[in-house]
Specification:
The protein is α+β, with helices and mostly antiparallel strands. The chain folds into two domains: about 1-95, Nucleic acid-binding proteins (OB fold (Dihydrolipoamide Acetyltransferase, E2P)), CATH 2.40.50.140; about 120-420, 2-Layer Sandwich (BirA Bifunctional Protein, domain 2). The chain is built from 13 helices and 17 strands. A hairpin with a 3-residue loop joins strand 2 and strand 3. Helix 4 (about 125-145) packs across helix 6. It holds the Pfam family tRNA-synt_2.
Length: about 425
């Protein structure tokens, strides 16, 4: 008898198989017991008919407790009512470990309780679906960049400099020096692009931002490509093609998970390049038309502003050419206007806010040196970054995509705390 996983059950229709699984839930109607089984690869219903199994097997099926671990044997049968398309006609059950008083029952639980039990909450069908979608986005990310000639480079997590200032960084001592947990690998990726042409990184980043919104985490993961000889327009094209690719990959490969989450896939099906664009200037005008009279040119956009702008489009929208005063020192000014920079934020539909920030980088040595001095950044810490402009500098561009916000948008969950296995929030370091 073959020992298989639920994800490959479709290969075994009509055959007897053995599963290692946990009991997610169960119900009984007297002469039939229905076991909701999960094994990490998926969920399937096991049906135990009293008249078709030994009495001890049926009694065991009725007495097994939630989240007990089992070996289950049975015949795979097709069932159109099942999201999987199959169920298991159980013939045997072997208990590996009997769980006692599992704390997360099928009743309603508060968020704080579930977060305190995050190590167990991950087992639920909903959380399983979100994690599978996250995994598909990661898989599709590697696929996209590998297919398009990018090289994966891993920037350091401990750094002596900060791309966007040190006010929101976690400080630590690095022996007898000051160091910070990285808020972005961008500066290092620029160095890598000068060596390898087109590069991308994927890793954890940290922001010591005291925010409690549904869009913020203290520790989150970023995908950060950087490209030599790419200007602002080239950069936007890569972004929209990349986002289109990951959305379509989730649609193709996670239909069960999207259905479990109740996601409106018609909205996702529209996410194909090219994406609409609106300049910061025009975005201000649009917000005034929508009744945001308090915002003026030079103000940054908050969540309500981004949501209102996104409501005018059914795809992600680029907001381009922000005021220079709002953006970091390394962004290239526009050729025709010194007060705005060649940057864009990509705003997701449905109120999920910014998922990408990107720009063309300053490649002129004197201009970058002036910006570093203007922002009072330590010259010694940025010496190596300036040297990139001394030895064969070229126009180059890049961006950063926040994985958790993207997972939240594509899966349709409200809060980013559900999109990372163990979220780090302002008041949460456990578990």
């Amino acid at each position: 008898m073959d020992k298989i996983t639920i994800s490959e059950i479709y290969k075994y229709a009509g055959k007897e198989v053995k599963l290692g699984a946990w009991l997610a839930n169960k119900r009984s109607s007297g002469k039939i017991a229905f076991l909701q089984l999960r094994d990490g690869t998926g969920f399937i219903q096991g049906v135990v008919v009293k008249s078709e199994v030994k009495e001890e097997i049926f009694q065991l099926a009725k007495s097994i407790t939630q989240e007990s671990s089992l070996y289950v044997t049975g015949q795979v049968t097709e069932d159109e009512r099942s999201p999987l398309g199959y169920e298991l006609q159980v013939t045997g059950i072997e208990v590996i470990h009997q769980a006692v008083d599992y704390p997360i029952t099928p009743k309603e639980h508060g968020t704080e309780f579930l977060m305190d039990h995050r190590h167990l909450w991950l087992r639920s069908r909903r959380q399983h679906s979100v994690m599978k979608i996250r995994n598909e986005i990661i898989r599709a990310t590697y696929e996209f960049f590998n297919q398009n000639g990018f090289t994966k480079v891993d920037p350091p997590i401990l750094t002596g400099s900060a791309p966007e200032g040190t006010t929101e960084l976690f400080h630590t001592k690095y022996f007898d020096e000051d160091a910070f947990l990285s808020q972005s690998g961008q500066l290092y990726m620029e160095a890598a692009a000068m060596a390898l042409g087109k590069v991308f990184s994927f890793g954890p980043t940290f922001r010591a931002e005291k925010s409690k919104t549904r869009r913020h985490l203290i520790e989150f993961w970023m995908i950060e490509p950087e490209m030599a000889f790419y200007d602002f327009e080239d950069n936007l094209k890569v972004q929209e093609e990349y986002v289109s690719h990951i959305v379509q990959s989730v649609l193709d490969n996670c239909p069960i998970e999207l259905k479990t989450l109740g996601r409106d896939t018609d909205k996702l099906a529209k996410i194909k390049a090219p994406f609409p664009r609106i300049s910061y200037d025009d975005a201000i005008k649009l917000l005034h038309e929508k009744g945001f009279d308090d915002i003026t040119w030079g103000d940054d956009f908050g969540a309500p502003h981004e949501t209102s702008i996104a409501e005018s489009f059914d795809k992600p929208v680029f907001i381009t050419h922000y005021p220079k005063s709002l953006k970091p020192f390394y962004m290239q000014p526009a050729e025709d206007r010194d007060d705005v920079v060649l940057c864009a934020d990509l705003i997701a539909p449905e109120g999920y806010g910014e998922i990408i920030g990107g720009s063309q980088r300053v490649h002129d040595y004197d201009m970058l040196k002036e910006q570093i001095e203007k922002h009072n950044l330590p010259a010694e810490a940025y010496k190596w970054y300036l040297e990139l402009r001394q030895y064969g500098s070229v126009p180059h561009s890049g961006f950063g995509l926040g994985l958790e916000r993207t997972v939240a948008w594509i899966s349709g969950v409200e809060h980013v705390r559900e999109t990372i296995p163990f979220p780090r929030l302002l008041n949460r370091l456990y578990p």
